[in-house]
Give the backbone structure.
Amino acid sequence: MGENGAEGRPTTGRARDSGAAPRGSEIQSVARASTVLGLVVDSGEGLTTTEIAKITGMTGSTVHRLAHTLVSGNLLCRDAASDRFLPGPLLLRLARKSLGASGVPEAADVLKELADRTGETASIGLRRGDDVLVVLSVPSTRPLRYTGRPGERVPLLESAIGAAIVAFGADPLDEAAAVLTRSGHGSPEAWLAETDLLATQFRGYAVLDDPHDEALRAVAAPVVAAGDVVRMAVEIQGPASRLPESALDGLGALVRSAADALEGLPVSMAFGEF
């Protein structure tokens, strides 16, 4: 038998690859399908084929083919009345399983207890670049209260959560300087004075009056992950009159206790990479 095949005929490159998948096109299709899924999930009310095509720059026929493939796999479904694509039953089932393993329900319980014990709105925030993303919030039941806004982005150094993340991270002064340089607002010295870095590190929690509303004050503590990495913090926020200096140590202890309870929960995985 010859080297080129059982029949002695030369084997062409096409014949050798005939059983191989066209990897480039398949990977592109997966990436496009992932984009469509993400857009539909984030839309809230679903999207039409035309809307998806406009957002992504894909042709209408490409979107139509991808969307209907996803519908056939139960990852999307189509509302016949509005012709909008919505998350399908399989995607919802996957979301429920992911949520159950993410630590989010347990984190919500921790926030609820913190809000009940302090009487103030309790929130968890994650660092996203030079911002803090508020991911979970349990509002105070008091008539006069701060209303947390999950999904809101706040400049890192303008929130107690961000102050706690930076203050208890590696090289806080260098990190603050880098963030302020990129933003073009303020100076490391001003931030150092505002946050009282040494006192923050000694106490174990950060206190920050809202730079846009002096009547609001927040107390935050870092959630330390594996390797002593700090990318998340928990806070309470409310009227400064209910968070006076004389009450800060007691409130700070409650916030630190909540932060300790959050350690080890893979909450950040539910909200993507940093």
In short: The longest strand covers residues 230-239.
